[in-house]
Amino acid sequence: MPEATTPPRFDATPNRYVLPADTKLHRVHDRKRRAAEFKPAQLNTGSPGSRFDGTEADPFASYYAGLESTTALAETLLRNLGFGVDGQRLIRRAQIAGRRLSTVRTTRELNLVSLRTAPDLAAVGQDSWLIDSEGKDAYPKTQKWAAWIRSQADWAAGLIWPSKRDTGKLALVLFGDRCGEEALDGDEPEVQIDLDTEIGEAWLNRMLKPYRAVVAPSPKR
Q1: Fewer Cβ within 10 Å of end Cβ, the chain: N or C?
Q2: Cβ–Cβ < 8 Å for 130, 122
Q3: What is the rounded (10 degree) CA torsion for 72, 38, 51, 46?
Q4: Residues 155-166, buried b or exposed e (16+ Cβ, 10 A)?
């Protein structure tokens, strides 16, 4: 693992990834939040938040998404989910309660910092630790790195990296202070599926079947 503090004497030149206009973004979110609504920085809540959230020193809102629906589902629902003795992963019903999958499109081209490859990570003084480390001890550090990367790339609307839980697919985060809801066509989402409904649960089980993950049976059944 490289030094977990940002380098004070390194002027980085982050690599650029151009996300075209009209790109589909898939996101799992609370139903109370609109499809294109950014999540405010979660400060002083006692929660470690997510990998590249805003910090107290740089409190930007964030929008996490995947370029495929399975990526959004896996990143949200398969985190720290082990396989049982039967080789199956059970998603707790509490994990999908009140949650929805939405699909929106970008309204314009967005420039993102690429963290997709080893050279991309090296360009910002990092390695795979930045996109693979997890938990309450790691996230405060990765969040500080996100703030530092932002300071090195004032053109960046977000970051993009390989999904840890949907190998071979891409996950991203958008910065709310650099591209707000106007960057997403959220008035009429292309897809909206409430995961805790009968139809949503059936769809979810079908999508995650290749991942050997299924929603736990209802106690009433």
Answers
A1: C
A2: no
A3: -120
A4: ebbbbbbbbbbb
Long-range pairs, 41-45, Cβ under 8 A, ≥24: none
Task: Give CA–CA dist 46/10, Å, rounded.
Answer: 32
Q: So where are the chain's domains? A: 16-215
- Residue owning tokens 């059944």: 221
Ranges of the chain with pLDDT below 50: none
Closest CA to 128 of 115, 114, 112: 115
Residue 7 pLDDT: 84
Distance, CA of 50 to chain centre: 8
Q: Write the CA distances from 219 to 53, 199, 203, 216, integer angstroms.
A: 36, 18, 20, 9
Entry pTM: 0.94
Query: Angle between the 69-77 and 198-208 helix axes, to the nearest 10 degrees?
Result: 100
What integer pLDDT is reported at residue 97 of this predicted model?
Answer: 97
Of how many residues is the chain composed?
221
Fold of 16-215: Diphtheria Toxin; domain 1 (3.90.175)
